[in-house]
Write a structure and sequence with these properties.
The chain is α/β, with parallel strands linked by helices and about 325 residues long. The protein has 2 domains: about 170 residues, P-loop containing nucleotide triphosphate hydrolases (Rossmann fold, 3-Layer(aba) Sandwich); about 140 residues, Beta-Lactamase (2-Layer Sandwich), CATH 3.30.450. About 45% of the residues lie in helices and about 25% in strands. Helix 4 runs parallel beside helix 6 and helix 8 packs antiparallel against helix 11. The longest helix has 23 residues.
């Protein structure tokens, strides 16, 4: 079983541990979290991957330890994904946070490591997310992180423990970046999109982690990601009445922004629940041409069958 090493780094109180605990649905621990003393290593399995999460305590004494010449080889080698967490509500420690990130980047260069990097603008809670000062602050942080990363590229996400989906979206990106299986999954999704003129197609697991995706515009993927939790919940409720839901078709009328992007007055979303063993997956396809619904339904059966086979061969 392949292993994946994921590092969570950031200053103390940035929210690394609560981020991980929320992902693991340990909500009861949130009110009693204490600063992580040194590295907190935990392992779990997601569909064939052994995930080693290294939650590096962010207090100065521990940061110094991780970066010592005789210690950093342990922490900053064989890394698949680096998550760096920055508290957007703590405006007084930006210099300290970016100095730490820069030191980590230098260690990665020293060991010729090239992990996927995900930077989270954390504690971006709903009550402040749309405030002008928050938007401006994140824009400034985005610009600054580019200067620190140098040759490295990173995906950035606004995250909050009060919106689990933001955490799942960021974590999905970290996993997708290191999974060779994604290439095969996405080739199937791309072929389906070509045959059905779909603008976005994605495969997700029961926690709504994205396992593969293909799209002509990222904004359309955002629409799909927003829809998935709701249609999945509806499908789950229907199954409680011993009804096997084969698919669900949604017709939506986009507002001005998406109407211009879609160049149409309607969009159609096809949702297909997949049951593989005891696990549940979701296929979602969005098309900007309602007339292609017949094509979606025609090829959806073969796509579902192919995806089931791929999931079985890869993960079971």
């Amino acid at each position: 079983m392949p292993g994946v090493k994921i590092i969570f780094a950031g200053l103390d109180s940035a929210g690394k541990t609560s981020f991980l605990n929320t992902l693991e649905e340990k909500y009861s621990t949130l009110t009693k979290i204490k600063p992580t003393l040194g590295p907190d290593r935990r392992e779990f399995t997601i569909f064939g991957f052994t995930i080693s999460n290294w939650d590096l305590g962010g207090q100065q004494v521990y940061r110094s330890t991780y970066l010592q010449s005789d210690q950093k080889v342990r922490y900053f080698t064989n890394i698949n994904t680096l998550f760096f967490i920055i508290d957007v509500q703590d405006t007084k420690r930006d210099d300290e946070a970016f100095d730490y990130l820069k030191a980590i980047i230098e260690a990665l260069k020293e060991f010729n490591e090239k992990p996927a990097i995900v930077v989270c603008w954390h504690k971006c809670d709903k009550d402040i997310e749309t405030k002008p000062e928050t938007i401006t602050r994140i824009q400034q942080l985005e610009a600054r992180v580019l200067t620190v990363l140098g040759p490295f590229k990173a995906k950035t996400f606004k995250t909050s423990i009060f919106d689990k989906w933001t955490l799942l979206k960021a974590f999905s990106q970290g996993l997708i970046s290191v999974s060779p299986k994604t290439i095969i999954i996405e080739s199937q999704l791309k072929d389906f999109a070509r045959k059905t003129f779909s603008s976005a197609v994605m495969l997700l697991d029961s926690n709504h982690l994205t396992l593969g995706a293909h799209t002509s515009a990222q904004e359309l993927m955002d629409v799909c990601e927003a829809i998935v939790p709701h249609v999945s919940q509806a499908a789950e409720k229907v199954s409680q009445y011993d009804i096997n839901l084969l698919n669900m078709v949604l017709t939506a009328k986009p507002g001005k922004y998406y109407a211009e992007m879609l160049q149409g007055k309607e969009m159609v979303v096809l949702f297909i629940p997949l049951k593989v063993g005891t696990y549940t997956f979701s296929l979602l396809s969005l098309t900007k041409n309602p007339k292609t619904l017949k094509l979606l339904l025609k090829y959806s059966t073969s796509l579902a069958a192919n995806m089931s086979d791929i999931i079985k061969s890869f993960y079971f």
